[in-house]
Specification:
The structure holds two protein chains of two kinds.
Chain A: E1 18-22, H1 26-37, E2 42-48, E3 54-58, H2 68-71, E4 87-96, E5 99-103, E6 114-119, H3 121-135, H4 142-150, E7 151-156, E8 181-185, E9 191-196, H5 199-214, H6 226-238, H7 258-265, H8 270-274, H9 282-286, E10 293-300, E11 303-310, H10 331-350, H11 360-364, H12 371-383
Parallel strand pairs in A: 2-6, 6-7, 7-8
Antiparallel strand pairs in A: 1-9, 2-3, 4-5, 4-11, 8-9, 10-11
Helix pairs in contact in A: 1-5, 3-4, 7-10
Chain B: E1 23-32, E2 39-45, E3 63-68, E4 72-77, E5 87-93, H1 97-103, E6 110-117, H2 123-126, E7 130-136, H3 140-152, E8 160-166, H4 175-184, E9 188-194, E10 204-205, H5 208-215, E11 222-227, H6 230-242, E12 250-253, E13 269-270, E14 273-274, H7 275-278, E15 281-283, H8 284-287
Parallel strand pairs in B: 7-8, 7-11, 8-9, 9-10, 11-12
Antiparallel strand pairs in B: 1-2, 1-6, 2-5, 3-4, 3-6, 12-15, 13-14
Helix pairs in contact in B: 5-6
The chains are: A alpha/beta, B alpha/beta.
Amino acid sequence: MDGAQRQPLTQAEPWPTFAAIRTSQVALLAEAAAFVAGPEALLVAPQPNAAGVWSWEPGVVADVRAEAWTAMVNTDISPKRFLLPQTEEIFAWQTIDRQPALVAPALGQPARPIVLFGVRPCDAAALAVLDQALLSGEWPDETYRARRYGALVITWACAQPGPECLCDACGLSPAHETGDVMVVPEPDRECLLLRGLTLRGRQVLGRTIEMVRKAPEGGGDDLAPVPARYAAALERLQAAATAIGGRVDLTSLPATSAAQNLALFEDPAWPALAARCISCGTCAYVCPTCHCFAVTDEPLYTSGRRVRTWDSCQFKEFMTAAGGHNPRPTKTQRARQRFMHKLGYHQERHGVLMCVGCGRCVRACPVGLHIAEVGAVLRDSLAAGQGPQRAGVAEEETTA
Amino acid sequence: MSHDDDAVRPSAGADPVNSLVPVMVTVRDVVRETDSGLIRTLVLDWDPAKCAHPVFDYRPGQCSMISRIGVGESMIAMASTATRRGTIEFTVKDAGRNTNALHQVVPGDQIGLRGPYGNGYPLEQLEGRDLLVVGGGIGISGLRALVNYCLDRRSEFGHLTIVYGAQSPGELCYKDELYGRWPDAPGVDVRLTVDAPATGWDGFVGFVPAYLEALAPQSDHATAVVCGPPAMIRHTATTLRRLGFAPGNILVSMELKMQCGVGRCGRCNIGGKYVCRDGPVFSLAELGELPEEY
């Protein structure tokens, strides 16, 4: 964007809650978002590769096309990595006078603000889950927080759920309102209807309208009445059901208390459910809410660094302590941990499912494990009154 | 984040430190605790003013991450008590790469420290009660912090019975305290056992649960505080239940692989709990609500 034309936003101005723009003017929305995010803001948006796979890439405003978000179901990997990088240096060190001296120059510096432009509602909802996991308690994650609160999230309602989508089974919908700005395309796709969900989101709308009025083709003022049209378009998209949503409701699984989760944990269905799992951990790497990490030292002679990297509870060594003790040596125990964390433990602690129904793990799983099917089997197993009893998984040996 | 909290976003980069970065502290002394040399106590200079972390009025039972930079980090219980200032102590068993590297340090070396983490012992609940302190092996280290804390604030606690077992007499830690300062203190009994008969040992021979059975300590007005290897904890808990201790009056310290220490890396997640943050001290009643994955 053109820094020379930058003018400060006036706090006193009443920022609009709703706005409408022509679909062809979507780049102005991106430019307004980058303006509100601040100088040096990095705009990232889904871009297709030659094979038609969409990925999050740093982009320029001019590349933003509205067709992107009707042609795309979702990106291959979630935008999580912009807030929680796959590898992050905690500190570097070098040896001075025979003792290690830590070098952590990045500390205390604000993260570069980022605009996540065109986030699907599931992935935007996943950020709230990450907030709960990483920012609650006595020791919040400082580097995540710096990036998170510098980030502007422009959420794009889904025109059509994909074959593996299950947001409605997770209590969300293809047009779940979350993020800073909600973008809903009208049925004829002529217009984009916008709602500012936060103060900064409404600032983005104000800036957008300002720019639209100055644009040669005009717009904005002749597009009323916006709130009613927004509500109608939103309702239509929210009602769109996914293939799985009508059959399974993961929010109704009794998994909100320690006692309920213990009963689910002890359900005899787990060995059969996990039989196909090969503990590859792919699910964790594509998941927008998985946040477990490893801390590793990388020494090189007299200097080095300590990094944290994404990790997965599916790996056999995840919990192995010095001395060799491993509380979850079998793949059944590890698969159960993943699904119990998604469906139960996080809910017990924070009140919401840790699955947002993006469907990536379903798509990526090499052996076809499906979180909604796991939920359905547990539901049916509980209903059949088979549990609770100890599943005896500790005796069953792993192939992994 | 909900729609409504737009006013409360903290400004980006407001945090002065990344809490995963340790503070460097100087080793003042290294004490070889056992004949095998596998257990040593690191005595560290401790000046809270020099530390960026807002720490250290720590409670007995809390832990810290201590680190040989370039090797790794380990969650270790404080073996000292904040009622004694100037130094902070960690008793470390040589069990893995980092603990082995920590065994190589000499006075003057610098190691990384961050903490304190975890809940520690519920001192308010323990006030006025008799304590049955039950330790096995290296598990005695966090209990030593509790015992010394109680001795420093003697009037706040009832009778102290310390039952401690190790493989052999030479593997018992803190011998000065076991044979001197603790039994010499008012209202303290020290009962020691070893796994197998040994020359010169005229005390009890057998595992800790068997010794407890033989001692049959009074459970009225008493809370049992247990730390040791997983198998020892299991059998000890069963024995204590048989002796009449209620599940809420049996406190155990859990030990799991941990890498962040602050409830984020996910390694010590069991059920809805993170052992590093919600523990490491749980009552047997609380443990009963958790999956048995420890």
